[in-house]
Design a protein that fits this description.
Cytochrome p450; five-stranded mixed beta sheet; binds protoporphyrin IX containing FE
């Protein structure tokens, strides 16, 4: 692997002035260094109130311990009113009370039981061979290209093919789904692509209602809670939730590749010792923290550290900050594929722990090992750009050149 930069990570002073309001500016996340702001907040204001602005007022939590505690207390911190910051003029998320991400216990557990079987270690192990085939097909398709956009051509395609197969999307429709999802969920949300995606799933649901198959859409359609079938709206919104969540997979895979390009010694280390694959995947998850934040709404008055949170207040858990908390991680700004322990929160924790965690880990492990087996040299082939978002992080484009062994 050839490096994009060999620069040592600078040691920054904690008392450097930072502009806190910029934390909600997507430009900071795309072009600046949000970690500088989070580092300051962890030390000076770990529970910080942001006033009303484009976004409704909210509390920021930046320390690991606080983020973990809120994730683990769904009775006090509800997901029902939204789990991502969104501008006040867009109102509440339409999936509130209906999708996995946006329901609270006990309904959340019942809904999760409808789909969980598709994402267990056993189910994912069963899928591993077809994942390997998908990876090989994807690499074969791009390997002769002079420049490959690793985000779209490799990571995005892989994430979409896998979730498409699980949901019951026909193989010849994977590319279509891939295109619409890119357009629908990317930072500049495209309404047209979103509608196409919804129409596609309505069509798939209609076909599965007549003739159920062994797939996730059929499982949702046949799923019951307290003896009642899910409504068609619930099925559709959950399909959208699950497909949309795979964006995180794409960003984490591609963010991992960007990290390896910046630190080629770590890629070489992995190539020399494949037993490091599991810890490397965990470090990529921690390092990239592609789900930048999760949000909750307090259901009752409570106190976090010395701050009084009122019922109805929004509380934002900055996962990316928690994963660099120096009280928990040794040299947190160092990318170390052998890091142990590594109890990062990149996939959340508790009630809403990422449904696709096993799948995400397996696809990264398989992709990295296939790249190490087949590709002799991975080189940067142009400037990379990061996504403009406060909800997800990672490369928007990552041009690379691949040379076969
Ligand atoms: C590396 C990639 C991924 C990351 C970093 C990630 C991150 C997360 C996080 C932080 C949460 C918790 C959100 C919260 O508590 O509010 C979550 C939940 C979820 N994730 Fe992932 N995710 C990834 C991949 C995937 C994939 C591939 C799928 C596809 C099935 C998926 C589906 C979901 C779903 C459906 C939930 C909601 C679960 C629930 O509320 O019970 N994720 N994910």
């Amino acid at each position: 692997m050839r490096s994009t930069s060999h620069a040592a990570e600078p040691t920054r002073l904690l008392d450097e002035p930072v502009c806190l309001h910029r934390l909600t500016d997507p430009v900071l996340h795309a072009e600046g260094d949000p970690h500088r702001v989070w580092r300051w907040m962890r030390h000076h204001a770990p529970v910080l109130r942001h006033p009303d602005g484009d976004l409704p007022a909210f509390w920021s939590l930046t320390r690991y311990e606080d983020v973990r505690a809120v994730y683990r207390d769904p009775e006090t911190f509800s997901s029902r009113r939204g789990v991502l910051l969104r501008p006040a003029h867009r109102g509440e998320d339409p999936g509130g009370g209906m999708t996995l991400a946006l329901t609270d216990p006990p309904r959340h557990r019942q809904l999760r039981a409808v789909v969980a079987g598709w994402f267990t270690t056993r189910s994912v192990r069963w899928l591993e061979e077809s994942m390997r085939d998908s990876v090989r097909a994807i690499l074969a398709r791009v390997v002769d290209e002079p420049v490959v956009d690793f985000v779209q051509d490799v990571a995005g395609r892989l994430s979409m093919y896998l979730i498409g197969s699980i949901m019951g999307v026909a193989e010849h429709d994977h590319e279509k789904l891939f295109r619409w999802t890119n357009e629908a969920f990317e930072a500049g949300v495209s309404l047209a692509a979103h509608q196409e995606l919804m129409h596609y799933f309505i069509g798939l649901m209609e076909r599965r209602l007549v003739e159920p198959a062994d797939d996730l859409v059929s499982a949702l359609l046949g799923g019951t809670i307290d003896g009642a079938l899910l409504t068609e709206e619930e099925v559709l919104l959950n399909c959208e939730n699950i497909v949309g969540a795979t964006e995180n997979g794409r960003l984490a895979i591609a963010g991992g590749m960007a990290a390896f390009l910046a630190r080629p010694d770590q890629w070489e280390r992995l190539g020399a010792d494949r037993s490091l694959l599991p810890t490397a995947v965990e470090e990529v998850l921690r390092w990239t923290s592609s789900a930048t934040h999760s949000m909750r709404t307090a259901t009752r008055d409570c106190v976090i550290r010395d701050q009084r949170i009122a019922a109805g207040d929004r509380v934002v858990l900055w996962v990316a900050s928690a994963n660099r908390d120096e009280d928990v991680f040794v040299s947190p700004d160092h990318f170390d594929i052998g890091r142990t322990p590594n109890r990062h929160l990149a996939l959340g924790i508790g009630e809403h722990f990422c449904l696709g965690a096993t799948l995400a880990r397996a696809q990264m492990r398989i992709l990295y090992s296939e790249l190490l087996d087949r590709i002799r040299l991975i080189e940067p082939a142009g400037p990379a750009h990061r996504v403009r978002s406060i909800a997800v992080a990672g490369p928007e484009t990552l041009p690379i050149r691949l040379t076969l062994r």
